[in-house]
Amino acid sequence: KLNSHPAGRHFLQIPGPSTVPDRILRAMDYPTIDHRGPEFQALGKKVLADIRKIFQTESPVVIYPGSGTGAWEAALVNTLSPGDAVLMYETGHFATLWKKIADKLGLQSEFIGNDWRRGVDASKIEARLAEDKEHKIKAVCVVHNETSTGVTSDIAAVRRAIDRARHPALLLVDTISGLGSVDYRHDEWGVDVTVSGSQKGLMLPPGISFNAVSQKAIAASRNAKLPKAYWGWDEILESNKNGFWPYTPATNLLYGLSEACDMLLEEGLTNVFARHQRHAAATRAAVEAWGMEVLCQNPAEYSGVLTAVVMPKDASGQHYNADAFRKVVLENFNMSLGQGLSKVSGWVFRIGHLGDFNDLTLMGTLSGVEMGFELAGVPHQKGGVLAAMAHLASTAPGAAKLQ
Ligand code: PLP
């Protein structure tokens, strides 16, 4: 084993969990307090107010101790009844997992198929809803940032499609990997339930997840008949009015959340989004210079969170193995890259450029990738790192020529 005690910091360049910055680690390193006492109450009120700003909503945001998968389930069980039809869109691995949950819960899910290289085509949703004259479809579920492919879908366009079809279906959106990295507007885009998680753009460890809920979603929850206990919004929203939870909340993760919101709001969401887009563009410049292909085929949908790279093919037409390549990078450079999931397994790897991430983190990341190609014998053109560096230098905000 080459790096049993590697010096320096591990490069966690998977598309989440992302690196937890020192400021958040320190904020969580504080004694756990009485979750029914006044100190906690102040914290609870603060995080419940701050998190709304991150979702760009005036509506309540429910915070669960639980992974994103739990928050997916919560979005469905709070708003729907057994046998309800839901229209979902196959953008990739995570959209497929959400559909499986819907099926396990006894919903009638319908999948609009896609080739995992582009995002949601809102016109297909509009056409399907227009056919549904009896309004059997109760919800449209889409993934905003598909973490398995590096494709970001246009949620405002989905909202317009639902409105054009004059259909009353709820709009449920997963932005587990988009929130806090790429622009997301719960209110402006008319989303009814937004699902998210802690371990990506919020820069926290895994362990808490979210449902931002519209008034229409809360109204639907009063008649929804799927069984729910732990995930039920009603008691949580009631306790949250006073800054508390009806059970033991994840106190130390909430310390971290408070700090994360401070960090994002101090930088300013617009700046956070621009930073991510700039790093994504520099990453794509590297991929292009290497003579390789990005998995996403629609430039308007390139993700600011991660870039999925297609491995080149050998003389027999087989892709070089992405996982063997990732192993070389991990063992030599102490960097984790994201694996290809399910349909794209073995021929795609993913570079996460999200969260607590700056120009030099990107340069280190891309250097590890380019050196990894060399060591693994993956054919590539030199100069990806230089191309990314040129992009960063030409777009740096603080250029100051000495003469
Ligand atoms: N949805 C998306 C888009 C994700 O990226 C993930 C996790 O990576 C999930 C859902 C599932 O979340 P979790 O693994 O926290 O349950």
Automatic annotation (TrEMBL):
Q: Which Pfam families match?
A: Aminotran_5
Q: In what residue span(s) does the Aminotransferase class V domain sit? A: 34-307
Q: Name one GO molecular function term.
A: alanine-glyoxylate transaminase activity
Which residues, if any, are the signal sequence?
none
Record keywords: Aminotransferase, Pyridoxal phosphate, Transferase
Q: Which InterPro entries match?
A: Aminotrans_V_dom (IPR000192), PyrdxlP-dep_Trfase (IPR015424), PyrdxlP-dep_Trfase_major (IPR015421), PyrdxlP-dep_Trfase_small (IPR015422), SP_NH2Trfase/AEP_transaminase (IPR024169)
Residues with N6-(pyridoxal phosphate)lysine modification? K200
Determine if Hydrolase is one of this entry's keywords: no
GO biological process per UniProt: glycine biosynthetic process, by transamination of glyoxylate
Q: Which cofactor does it need?
A: pyridoxal 5'-phosphate
Is the Transit peptide keyword given for this protein? no
For the ligand (substrate), the binding residues are R350
The record's similarity note reads: Belongs to the class-V pyridoxal-phosphate-dependent aminotransferase family.
* Descriptive protein name: Aminotransferase class V-fold PLP-dependent enzyme
Biological classification of the source: Bacteria, Pseudomonadati, Pseudomonadota, Betaproteobacteria, Burkholderiales
